[in-house]
Description:
The protein is of the alpha/beta class. Helix content is about 30%, strand content about 25%.
Amino acid sequence: xxxxxxxxxxxxxxxxxxxxxxxxxxxxxxxxxxxxxxxxxxxxxxxxxxxxxxxxxxxxxxxxxxxxxxxxxxxxxxxxxxxxxxxxxxxxxxxxxxxxxxxxxxxxxxxxxxxxxxxxxxxxxxxxxxxxxxxxxxxxxxxxxxxxxxxxxxxxxxxxxxxxxxxxxxxxxxxxxxxxxxxxxxxxxxxxxxxxxxxxxxxxxxxxxxxxxxxxxxxxxxxxxxxxxxxxxxxxxxxxxxxxxxxxxxxxxxxxxxxxxxxxxxxxxxxxxxxxxxxxxxxxxxxxxxxxxxxxxxxxxxxxxxxxxxxxxxxxxxxxxxxxxxxxxxxxxxxxxxxxxxxxxxxxxxxxxxxxxxxxxxxxxxxxxxxxxx
Length: 374
């Protein structure tokens, strides 16, 4: 079938994207779903910094590629062997397909699925197939989703059935921002009631991490960002203290508030400098958790002796260390109970044709989450 999709032909691309137009809207060919695959109609897709990092080259992916990994959809057709869904079912798409059989999957860590990671890196579906093409040439899938399109073919293991009737522009956010941020606070860091938390970087994932910390009963909760509007948003979502990251005394202020540093620092900015700051504001015996996906070439220094003598923990968090089939329903339940005010993440909505302008808003910090409505 022919579908309209946003294709990234080359990376890296420079902004402003409204002028350079790295994403072009093309009519591409989408093959039918194969065994274990599902054809979905995309209802809403969020613009995320992980997409932006492919555009600007910070996170290399094979091109040409149809981007988009945070989305809500409806089941349109089922491939052979898929018998637990029906046409019309709503779903949240997940950007790590889990095979269910590799060592990480078998130990309850589907975020680290080895075949899923290999397929994502190669630009294929979990089956190793590509269902997208243009002019007879294959187009790569982004992390098995490619949601910046009218329709997508995905692995059955790349979606979670959604029972809620929430609007699609909100449902989409559960596929990345909420899953990654709330999961990082609750699953990876394991924040407990009364523990002190700082969140460095207040995009969609960072504010979700802050909401997760608040839902877990953390106190105090310190928000750190360069953008004053995002700091204001953080206070409305449960931050007890807000500090501009440009403040030369930011480290001292955090240590003063917490009498030595936070028990949990969550870095969500996607910057090695931000991760270093998060590490420096973590107290002795504390944990620094990052889900930020900084440029793969950037590093920061850690003193081995300090790591040992202060019993520090530095942890990575991918997809919030979540089991999506378990965590999406429970995060949805928390949202519906008023415990996760996810609506606050939605800055604006737009059309597929305006995708480049949407990425300009994201890159400039004006948007927390801009969601495309198909």
